[in-house]
What does this fold into?
Amino acid sequence: MAPANSLIDFESPAFLKTLLVLTIAFVCGGLIGVERQIRQRNAGLRTMVLVSVGAAAFVHLGERLLGGEGQVRIIAYVVSGIGFLGAGVIMKEGAQVRGLNTAATLWTSAAVGAFAGSGLFAEAAAVTLFILAGNTLLRPLVNYINRRPVDAATTEATYRVHVVCAAEHITEARDLLDAELERAKYPIREIEVLSEGEDTTELAAVLIPTTAEASELDAVCAALVASDAVESATWTVSTTL
It folds into this structure.
């Protein structure tokens, strides 16, 4: 018989519990991953399974070594550590940010694994169902809201006043843009050059306010167009990130 302090100390009941923990984490992570894979996300089936199983394995290991205290320690590291993995799938393309939903799904998949690693299998299954509901059942509602026109008076958004002018009038148009917005009491964050050709240049003043009156911005554009230095003027609104 092996001595009590032997490095080889195989315990069948404990091993079977480990297998159960990893199996639950694998199944739950797989359900989440299938939905992500169907939608052709970068973090798909394999990634979600590995995140869930990995979190479960670490949390269960903490329990095996230090009991409940070990679980709490490992869970704290899982919560913060998974953020680095999530950051890797977030990409910024101009004013658009992609991958936030995938990062959130990774984070919550780790929560599923943490529940499974703690032996809370029913809770792990419940979190899995809520994640799937968030990624599927809420999608029609999100699409409906996104199709609604942006309300310039109530939506927190980024406003830009665009001006197209001849290349030789760019300085005059810039000064006029600044003056008209100052007169309307709309401070400017910056003035961007959106396009610059041989004949014309397009400028855009980014406003600091997150809400604005459409009628006031229309009046600013009308005043800008009245100048000989400006060929056209309009304003746009886009939702903030």
